[in-house]
């Protein structure tokens, strides 16, 4: 049996919810799918299945070469295995990561997502949907300061989204790393997407001229921030 690539694409911010006229990141995700007209399921659990968020997803993806659907958890939950294992791409939205993972675990969804990943489904996501795949995510799930959260652990170390989009992100990450409270952290600006194959980072692509990504690691008692190479995606139009 042919071994399928296990692909995860973690997006730091932006994408269809805030850049509806520049679907560069969406097109990049779709291009990694195993078919030319991929089925794409949006999972808005972290936002409590917010109807406006779901509407923005459909507004963007119905204009692209794909077959979009979404997973509603907070109505009558569908057969998760049947729905998710039929997808070429599963796209997880942003919101409250801790609450999302709590719901997922109650429904045994991580096991289904892992099965989909190993079968060749591309797992992608933004913000909460980006950090959930790592050992640790830097999250604002709690009111107050940013804090580390144990996540699924399918990708190594820690991840922080919105690194340039929210002013408290950079100092919080540096403090957490310098104190040894989180491991080495992949920090992603809005508009940056990290593409992993297996557990290895393949490339980082960006949809904004100023977007970047960084490795933040501890040396002694200091946090060292190192820019990572990025590939600029061409501006896309609908």
Strand arrangement within the widest β-sheet reads 3-2-4-5-1-10-11-14
Number of strands: 14
Report the total helices. 7
Q: Low-confidence stretches at least 5 residues in length (pLDDT < 50)?
A: none
Strand content: 25-35%
The CATH top-level class label = Alpha Beta
What is the overall shape? globular
The CATH architecture category equals 3-Layer(aba) Sandwich
What is the CATH superfamily label?
Answer: Class I glutamine amidotransferase (GATase) domain
The domain count comes to: 1
Largest sheet: 8 strands, mixed
Short description:
This protein is of the alpha/beta class. The chain is 24% helix and 30% strand.
Q: How are the secondary structure elements laid out?
A:
Layout: E1 7-11, H1 24-31, E2 39-43, H2 51-61, E3 67-70, H3 80-84, E4 89-92, H4 97-106, H5 109-118, E5 122-126, H6 128-131, E6 134-139, E7 147-150, E8 155-160, H7 169-178, E9 185-188, E10 192-197, E11 200-206, E12 213-219, E13 222-227, E14 231-232
Parallel strand pairs: 1-5, 2-3, 2-4, 4-5, 6-8, 8-9, 11-14
Antiparallel strand pairs: 1-10, 6-7, 9-12, 10-11, 12-13
């Amino acid at each position: 049996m042919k071994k399928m690539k296990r692909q995860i694409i973690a997006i730091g911010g932006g994408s269809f919810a805030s850049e509806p006229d520049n679907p560069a990141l969406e097109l990049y995700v779709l291009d990694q799918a195993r078919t030319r007209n991929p089925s794409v399921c949006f999972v808005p659990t972290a936002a409590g299945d917010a109807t406006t968020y779901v509407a923005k997803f459909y507004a963007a993806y119905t204009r692209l070469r794909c077959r979009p659907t979404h997973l509603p958890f907070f109505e009558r939950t569908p057969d998760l295995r049947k729905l998710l294992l039929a997808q070429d791409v599963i796209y997880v939205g942003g919101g409250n990561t801790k609450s999302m993972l709590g719901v997922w675990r109650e429904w045994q969804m991580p096991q289904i997502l892992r099965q989909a990943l190993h079968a060749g489904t591309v797992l992608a996501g933004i913000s909460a949907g980006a950090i959930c795949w790592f050992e640790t995510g830097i999250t604002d799930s709690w009111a107050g300061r940013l804090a580390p959260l144990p996540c699924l652990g399918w990708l190594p170390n820690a991840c922080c989204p919105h690194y340039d989009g929210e002013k408290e992100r950079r100092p919080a990450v540096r403090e957490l790393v310098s104190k040894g409270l989180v491991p080495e952290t992949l920090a992603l600006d809005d508009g940056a997407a990290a593409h992993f194959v297996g557990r290895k980072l393949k490339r980082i692509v960006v949809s904004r001229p100023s977007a970047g990504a960084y490795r933040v690691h501890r040396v002694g008692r200091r946090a060292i921030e190192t820019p990572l190479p990025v590939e600029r995606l061409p501006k896309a139009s609908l």
